[in-house]
Amino acid sequence: MAIGVLALQGSFNEHITALNKLGVKGVEIRKPEQLEHVRALIIPGGESTTMAKLAEYHNLFPALRSFVKSGKPVWGTCAGLIFLADRAVGQKQGGQELVGGLDCLVHRNFFGSQIQSFETELSVPTLADKEGGPPNFRGIFIRAPAILEAGPSVEVLADYPVPSKQVMETASESKTEQEQNNSGEKVIVAVKQGNLLATAFHPELTADTRWHSFFMNMVDGPVDEGSADQTIAYIAKQLPVFQ
Ligand code: GLN
Fold it and tell me: Alpha-carbon distance 187 to 158, whole Å?
């Protein structure tokens, strides 16, 4: 069975390419019934309002919700994180439908507008522990959301320091410029809760496939039937990394 990537809009091709690099087949999901044939799902970054409208048009919300509830792994990146959150602020007027499941409050455009997009080195101890490699990860934040509150069953995998001024102002939903210096306040940018993984940044736009590999390790059993190469890649992934 392959891994589904919601392909309504946004960076779904990049996720499929990253999966392919790991020897895993990624298939585009546009219709509810296609979810029956995948073992896990990635909801990519893009524009969450547009994606929600398209999901509604294709009657995908009920199927997406039951997929999340079924316990199969689901990973939301950026707009995908917004989709998975139980609660969101900073939405367009009228809000937007969410899939939910992730016990988090997300701010949709926490880091500001498109021109305030940035890259930064994130400390990712759990990822490095599980997948090897350096203790940090290059986070690409494009008009990115952030998690402001997370429930007790949510494991924080990465956070990011921001000025307390921004934290306070975004809590009251007014827009601010991102300041260069930080005050020790942090927002959450990567989490895991049971079968759900969410990142505010875009691992699919980097050459570092550790988040994809981490997600694949949340999936039970070999993911690609019928291909010796892919099964070997899966087994190799389970072996310790020598470096
Ligand atoms: N903040 C954007 C939204 O609301 C998400 C941006 C992204 O996915 N890169 O959809």
Answer: 9
Question: Is 108 a domain residue?
Answer: yes
Residue 49 Cα to ligand 1 middle (Å):
8
DSSP 208: -
pLDDT at 92: 76
DSSP class of 123: E
Q: Hey, whose CA ends up nearest to atom 5 of ligand 1?
A: 79
If you compute the radius of gyration of the chain from its CA atoms, what whole number of angstroms results?
17
Does 46 sit in the ligand 1 pocket, CB within 6 Å?
yes
226 pLDDT more than 60: no
- Sign, CA dihedral 219-12-147-22, equals positive
Give how far the C-alpha of residue 149 lies from the chain's centroid of Cα atoms, to the nearest Å.
16
How many domains does the chain fold into? 1
Report residue 58 as tokens. 């294709």
- Ligand 1 centre and the CA of 200: distance in Å? 9
* Sequence letter at residue 117: S
The predicted model scores a pTM of 0.85
- Across the range 155-176, mean pLDDT stands at 67
**Would you name the residues annotated as active-site residues?**
78, 202, 204
Closest atom of ligand 1 relative to the 46 alpha carbon: 8
User: Which tokens hold the place of 127?
Assistant: 């990822």
Task: State the pLDDT confidence band at 180, using cuts at 50, 70 and 90.
Answer: very low
Residue-number span of the structural domain to which 39 is assigned: 2-236
